Amino acid sequence: MKSNLLSLEMMNGQERLHEALEMRGFLVKKEGPFLMLASGSSKRDLRSLKMLLNKLHIPIFWNGDRFQLLTNKFPVMMMKKITEHRGEEFPVSMEGYHFRWRAFVNRKNGLKVDALDLDPHIACFVKAVNEAGIPCLAGCDGHLKHAPNLQFSGVYSGAWFQIIQEQYLSEFELNYTWNVEFKGGSGSRLVASKARNERWDRHKIYEDTLKMAYKLKEHADEIKKRKASSFKRNAGMKEEAEGLRTDGRFEELVDWMERLSN
To answer: Distance (Å, rounded) from C-alpha 116 to C-alpha 138?
Structure first.
């Protein structure tokens, strides 16, 4: 997890606030002595951020859209209040064109999902997947009752994530096994699995999602450039992709896309 690289004891208050907000799914960047939301944030994120900071009575100085913590100290307990702030259920819908090759190729960036709509233990991961240019509609941390999962936008986004997962995330020893499945209303999803007699553990889920999220953030620009240079709207590529998708040959689709991107 990112906080292992710079221990909490070494962080000042501003750095702790930055860390907590990022863990909760806000895309935050440094701007001189200030913090501000980065591109990729939704229109509601700034309003939600102000609401959250005000609700928790955190002393903040605002300079336009930039903000600064008005104290050098920021307790771990306050960080926890931010990172564990509950999400809100929201409707997820897709149009038919989202499943098509053209929509996948044309979209250069991910989706701007509202941070506080997402479950707290998976929000950072959803935002990071979108930051890497892989459209992700939503995520659920499972609420300790069922498997945590991410919903991708269409089959091609799930196939592309499977490739990225193997090439960028396979180094991690994770608590759970995370696999892409090609089914459900969105076409594809990433789902965690555990041993039959094992119980879901919120801390282990969080640890897994943060590890993967920070790695994707680190390589986000590189991943977006690879996608843009590998997949095109030409007729031959479209025919091959759509044929594999409509026939349900999803593993062949992943192999074909991987060859194109190498």
So the answer is: 12
Helices and strands, counts by H and E, the chain: 10, 8
DSSP helix/strand/coil, 189? strand
Q: Which residues contact 170 (CB under 8 A, 6 or more apart)?
A: none
**Two tokens, residue 127:** 């935002």
Say which DSSP state 200 is in.
P
Query: Are the C-beta atoms of 110 and 44 separated by less than 8 Å?
Result: no
CA distance 76 to 9: 10
Domain boundaries, the chain: 2-83, 96-261
First to last CA, the chain: 29
Give the model confidence (pLDDT) of 62-100 as tens digits: 999 999 999 999 999 999 999 999 988 766 777 777 889
- Condensed to tens digits (0 to 9), the pLDDT of residues 140-183 reads 999 999 999 999 999 999 999 999 999 999 999 999 999 999 98
What does R_g of the chain's alpha carbons equal in angstroms? 19
Run of H or E including 67: strand 66-69
**pTM, 2 dp:** 0.94
Is the Cα dihedral 26, 27, 30, 33 positive or negative? negative
